[in-house]
């Protein structure tokens, strides 16, 4: 089962005489780092849309968060620390994310981000 912790909020903004415009904003995707596990293990996003990820280390060891195909490399996070990252995917496909606190992906601490075509 694929877990997706992404909520899409739709807000209407007035444009005066021009009418209404729907603005779509995605809430941050919550990623939890635990010793030996990253949750969720799968994330779905759209190409060309800003992706916001809130990463929290709930483990007992130092961990980080890496999506090398999009040049996302967080600092090492001590237990209880968090960091927010954002980027705009410019390509589609399946991309690995993981924790590599010592330069090598940690066992069990990986997932896959799927980037679909623009909507």
Description:
With 119 residues, the chain is mainly beta. The chain has a single domain, classed as Cupredoxins -  blue copper proteins (Immunoglobulin-like). 0% of the residues lie in helices and 49% in strands. The chain is built from no helices and eleven strands. A four-stranded mixed beta sheet has the order 4-3-6-9, with no helix packed on it. A three-stranded mixed beta sheet has the order 5-11-10, with no helix packed on it. A hairpin with a 4-residue loop joins strand 7 and strand 8. The protein is globular, with a radius of gyration of 16 Å. The two termini are 24 Å apart.
> Nearest-angstrom radius of gyration?
16 Å
Share of helix, binned: under 10%
Summing up helix and strand content along with how strands pair, one would put the structural category as: mainly beta
Order of helices and strands: EEEEEEEEEEE
Strands across the major sheet, in which order? 4-3-6-9
Supply the number of structural domains.
1
> What's the shape?
globular
Q: Given the structure, what is the number of helices? A: 0
- Mean pLDDT value: 82
Poorly predicted segments: 1-25
> What share of the residues does DSSP label as strand, in percent?
over 45%
Main β sheet profile:
4 strands, mixed
CATH superfamily: Cupredoxins -  blue copper proteins
CATH architecture, please? Answer: Sandwich
Reading off the top of the CATH hierarchy, the class is best stated as Mainly Beta
**CATH topology heading:** Immunoglobulin-like
């Amino acid at each position: 089962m694929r877990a997706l912790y992404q909520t899409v909020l739709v807000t209407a903004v007035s444009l005066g005489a021009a009418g209404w415009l729907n603005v779509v904003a995605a809430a941050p995707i919550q990623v939890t780092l635990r010793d030996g596990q990253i949750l969720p293990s799968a994330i779905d996003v759209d190409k060309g849309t800003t992706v916001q990820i809130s990463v929290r280390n709930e483990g007992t060891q130092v961990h980080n968060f890496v999506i090398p195909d999009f040049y996302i490399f967080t600092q090492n996070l001590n237990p209880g620390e968090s960091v927010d990252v954002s980027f705009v995917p410019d390509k589609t496909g399946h991309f690995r994310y993981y924790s590599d606190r010592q330069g090598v992906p940690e066992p069990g601490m990986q997932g896959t981000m799927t980037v679909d075509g623009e909507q």
